[in-house]
Design a protein that fits this description.
The chain is of the alpha+beta class and 182 residues long. The protein has helices at 3-15, 24-33, 81-92, 98-107, 109-117, 154-162, 172-176, and strands at residues 44-46, 52-56, 59-70, 122-132, 136-146, 165-170. A hairpin with a 2-residue loop joins strand 2 and strand 3.
Length: 182
């Protein structure tokens, strides 16, 4: 990917309303290192492992880029029976899987239309986690979808929130020290 497109994508990432402040140079470099074939019918390309974390008081915010999505290939989609069944099993088990999420994007007519209408060749799919360990260990994981040039983010934010996963474990030490337990 060329630097100009990588910088543009990261600019849109930084502007996402649910995002932490990102290290622009780091993510631009990651995108530029990702090998994307010029001519391909693939919808997405995996991004090399990457990660940025921010610690704050009782929370850890973590973000990673997972997939580069090829906008012009969003409409070219036929899901096979086996992949459909595996996807349904993964979703019922509440498994977070970026490839499954990429397939889910392609099932959304609204998102596919958005991708088809932007004049930029790529979109991004990332993973955002918030780990809150104040009174319990609560982990919120959700996708971050960046479709550059889209001004109405409501459909994107609604899709992200629908795919959000929340896990919570009670911390025994905090539970035992609670005033009602003493």
């Amino acid at each position: 990917m060329n630097k100009k497109i990588a910088e543009l994508l990261v600019d849109y990432l930084e502007a996402h309303p649910n995002m932490i402040s990102v290290d622009k140079d780091y993510f631009v470099d990651i995108l530029m290192q990702t090998k994307i074939p010029q001519k391909s019918d693939e919808f997405y390309h995996k991004i090399p492992p990457n990660h940025q974390s921010i610690d704050s008081d009782s929370r850890i915010y973590s973000f990673s880029l997972r997939r580069i999505l090829r906008n012009r290939n969003a409409k070219k989609y036929r899901i096979g029976l086996i992949r459909s069944a595996l996807g349904a099993i993964g979703e019922s088990l509440r498994i977070y899987d970026s490839s499954l999420l990429a397939r889910k994007i392609r099932k959304s007519r609204k998102l596919v239309e958005m991708m088809d209408q932007v004049g930029i060749p790529y979109s991004l799919l990332g993973k955002f986690e918030i780990i809150d360990y104040e009174s319990s260990v609560k982990c919120e994981t959700k996708p971050i979808l960046i479709i550059p040039g889209v001004e109405d983010l409501d459909a994107i934010l609604a899709w992200e929130n629908k795919k959000k996963r929340v896990y919570e474990e009670i911390r025994i030490d905090k539970a035992l020290s609670h005033p009602k337990m003493t």
